[in-house]
């Protein structure tokens, strides 16, 4: 199918799944007529067909742009992100170690390649989170390193069916997330972002003020700070699609927030402070894996995700691999 402008063509790849007649994710490639073009043609097409692209994203939850030969560098990617016109969301309160690259673009989670990053909605553990995220493959992985994605409402439906009492308690009490931050970033940890880069300041009083805006409590220690967030909802209602979504970082925190400072079992509890049942968390992880799809990255790929509809993760990989990201309000 071509859009009315004829620039984008909907494509099929083997990894896609179909739910109620809707493929996940949508895949767009250049039409045959547009196989030779420069970056300005692509950005113009994005601006021209933005309403259609927005409706496609809303319907499918994620769009993979593949085969656009002018997309090779971080500045190219930044230009495409800018063409969509979404407002930028500063990365305040997130856990991942990242480095700013150019414009609105920074590195995706820089944790070691042998580590898996569990499924999560981006920044679901803080009140202000992105509505959309872009990923870009600047250097495709030698092996592995996929970014699996899964539709959030499917996870909610399966968990509700299998563990109704657990989900009821989750909806009633929400979750509390606890994380201990050092002063500086620790690139050996998947949650190694230090408090200075978490709050974008070297000043503790400014960090307190920014944490306060997130309703986050800080407890300072000799060499860092304990952050306590919550209770915060673990299930949200997606108004635009009229369905409940599994919007939390519960599995990510319980199975992955581990380093020299943090014990993952203590990283997340029910909102009333009671511990979570480990066997249910791991069963939820199994459901996430079963429902997910993992598309191997190719150089130049752009993946646009609706953060309210889709959770994402990262598989271990053999370097090199360089995936860049951009967050939007």
Automatic annotation (TrEMBL):
GO terms for molecular function: oxidoreductase activity. InterPro entries: AlphaKG_dependent_hydroxylases (IPR050411), TauD-like_sf (IPR042098), TauD/TfdA-like (IPR003819). Keywords: Oxidoreductase. Residues 36-324 form the TauD/TfdA-like domain. It holds the Pfam family TauD. It comes from the Eukaryota. This is TauD/TfdA-like domain-containing protein.
